[in-house]
Amino acid sequence: MTRYSKEERRKRLGEALSENPFFTDEELSEQFKVSVSTIRLDRGELGIPELRERTRAVAQEAYSTLKALDDQELIGELLELVIGERACSRLVIDESMVLAKARVARGHYLFAQANSLAISLVDAPIALTGSVGLKFKRPVQLGEVVIAKGTVLKRKQNKYWVQISVSVGAEEVLRGDWILFAMEDVTAIREREMEE
Amino acid sequence: MTRYSKEERRKRLGEALSENPFFTDEELSEQFKVSVSTIRLDRGELGIPELRERTRAVAQEAYSTLKALDDQELIGELLELVIGERACSRLVIDESMVLAKARVARGHYLFAQANSLAISLVDAPIALTGSVGLKFKRPVQLGEVVIAKGTVLKRKQNKYWVQISVSVGAEEVLRGDWILFAMEDVTAIREREMEE
After folding, report:
1. Could you tell me which SUPFAM superfamilies the record lists for this protein (chains A, B) (predicted)?
2. Per-window interface: A 58-117 vs B, CB < 8 A
3. Contact assignment for A100 to B70 by CB distance below 8 Å
4. For chain A, which has fewer Cβ within 10 Å, the N-terminal or C-terminal residue?
5. What confidence tens digit (pLDDT) does each residue in A165-196 have?
6. CB A125 to CB B101 under 8 A?
7. How many A×B Cβ pairs under 8 Å?
8. Angle at A74 between CA B77 and CA A66, to 5 degrees
9. Does the beta-carbon distance from B136 to A126 stay under 8 Å?
10. Using a CB-CB distance cutoff of 8 angstroms, which residues of chain A are in contact with residue B137?
11. For residue A180, what is the nearest residue in chain B, using CA coordinates?
12. B138-147: per-residue pLDDT in tens?
């Protein structure tokens, strides 16, 4: 990649961050082939706050969008949510989430993060999981930061097909396909059988 | 079914309970076409304690068999465990496990019960989930008693195929197929990719 002039770089930096506010200064420094302090200076000039601030702002907006879940029902920290389209959450694996012997994250924590993200994507007051196909690709260690990204692949009436990809850094650790059902009220689910 | 003489019935009752200690007196009463109090009398004569006592005795034995999990890592109450063969656990859905709006059990609690039961079936100090295919058949309500039954379908070297069927009463609410990997020690999983 060519190095840009200062003006060009700042323009592109602003564009990059408005597309993906979760780039770290380190990642941007690599991308633009300048030092981290240059990136900080650029951000200062552009009035773009540091990553933590940006995450908080985006997360507040994302949480206010939640429909089928309450705030505390989303496992992990919600980073982005466009209902019916895409969503993203973050989970840091702490001591309480690892198996005593294996010291790796228990499968159901990763499942909970992914499943609640899938539910958040459904545009209805209530969403139920119908079926799931999951593949765990590698164990997740204590302290690792797990990012789950969800995409609505297809929607037909009250049925949603959602794909969730869970990664640590650039490495995918879990991938799954969900089929979910949107429901308008509680009474509907009392007798209902979920059919694929 | 024919009604048996008292002696014959007691003999068969003893056999039925040694095969499945979780029959309730009501179920036995239906099965043997006698009243519940007759069943209680029969049990008294045979020296077979009530269901709760039987469950406790079986559970103690089951917990002492756990290998890939610590006691508190098994989600639900372990009722039976023959490592490498079959296992059974029980989970009562309480307020903390239901979705605020839908009032049904959150998917990841049922997953956690099933997944930890699948792990308990692996004959190794460490077991990891590779892939899972799940089908949620109907929502589970607050207060319902959920029984998960696991069976090892096949085993090839360190790879296990396990089927888990989760029911409320006679109704299946979740069914899933697991592929798991047995590991002898922690170092083996640090670099390892799980392959199907």
Report:
1. Thioesterase/thiol ester dehydrase-isomerase
2. 68-70, 73, 75, 99-104, 106-108, 111-112, 115-116
3. yes
4. N
5. 999 988 999 999 999 999 877 666 655 545 44
6. yes
7. 122
8. 145
9. no
10. 193-194
11. B136
12. 999 999 999 9
Average pLDDT over residues B113-125: 93
Low-confidence ranges of chain A (pLDDT < 70): 1-2, 186-196
pLDDT tier, B193 (very low <50, low <70, confident <90, very high otherwise): very low
A132 contact residues in B (CB cutoff 8 A): 132-134, 136
d(CA A10, CA A39): 9
* CB–CB contact A102 B186 (8 Å): yes
Contact A144, A130 (CB under 8 A): no
CATH number for region A69-191: 3.10.129.10
B6-48 topology per CATH: Arc Repressor Mutant, subunit A (1.10.10)
ipTM more than 0.85? Answer: no
Flag whether pLDDT at B135 surpasses 60.
yes
